[in-house]
Every structure is written in C-alpha cells, then in structure tokens.
Amino acid sequence: MLPHPAVVVPLEQTLFSDAFQLVWRAHLGDSLASGVWTVEEQGLHINHLELLAVFRALQSFQQALSGSVVSVIYDNSTVVAFLRKSRGTHSEPLSALAGMVLGWCKSRSISLCPVSVPGCHNVIADVLCVGSE
C-alpha cells in the first residue's frame, strides 16, 4: 500500500476587532493591536471605520495570519456582509474597501471567514476600546 501524501491543513485562527470614533482595537490569541484614527478618518461613517479596523487588525497580525484560515468575529453585520460578498449594494466606498481587504488577504494566503455576533459577545474588543473615545 502506498503511503498517503501529507495533507497540510491551514492553521485556523480567530481575530476580534472593534472600532469607535477615535480608536480601533483588536486581539488575536494573547496579542493585542490598536490604533488611533487620523482626523480625516474620524469623519468617516462608523461602518467604514469598522471595516477599516478589520483591515488594520489583519495588517497588524500579518505575520501570524499568513497562510491561515481566519475567523473574523465582528459585531457589525454590515462589515460581515461586505466581507462575505466582497461588495455591497449601497456603499461604493465600503465595496472598494472590502475588495481591497480581500485582495490583500488573497495575496498573503489568508482566508477570511467573517462571523457576525451580537455586540455583547464581542466583549474583549469592546472593553479594549472603552475609555478611549
């Protein structure tokens, strides 16, 4: 009987992030990442900031996420919908940003699995942002 070739299964990881008007925060395992929005970014719609927070989180953890399947846990159903469909029907800027995020991930062999959760279940990312507004 011939030996079976080794099957490489991508590492599965879970990324949590959240955005507020002034800051974004994320965590992956025990690692944390955060940033402050520029004055221009602070003027963006909250859905845009939420999607941008996902992108910044992915960029921050790029080395750890490369070649992985990443569950992106988010409490904003609009963000999850745009990441699942790579575009939406009502916002060209969000469609463009979602396409940029997905293209960036593809070039780094990162497969996204966006998951929508109620805000009360995105506790760690929420707590990281409290008091930073």
Describe the structure in your own words:
With 133 residues, the protein is an alpha/beta fold. The protein has one domain (12-129): Ribonuclease H-like superfamily/Ribonuclease H (Nucleotidyltransferase, domain 5, 2-Layer Sandwich), CATH 3.30.420. The protein is 41% helix and 24% strand. It has helices at 39-42, 46-60, 62-65, 77-85, 92-106, 123-129, and strands spanning 12-19, 23-28, 31-36, 69-74, 111-116. It has a 5-stranded mixed β-sheet with strand order 3-2-1-4-5, sandwiched between helices. β1 (12-19) and β2 form a beta hairpin. The model is unreliable at 128-133 (pLDDT under 50).
Q: How would you briefly describe this protein structure?
A:
Helix content is 41%, strand content 24%.
Core attributes:
nucleotidyltransferase; five-stranded mixed sheet; Nucleotidyltransferase, domain 5; disordered C terminus; endonuclease activity; 133 residues; Reverse transcriptase RNase H-like domain-containing protein; RNA-directed DNA polymerase activity; 24% strand; nuclease; 41% helix; single chain; alpha/beta
Topology record:
Elements: E1 12-19, E2 23-28, E3 31-36, H1 39-42, H2 46-60, H3 62-65, E4 69-74, H4 77-85, H5 92-106, E5 111-116, H6 123-129
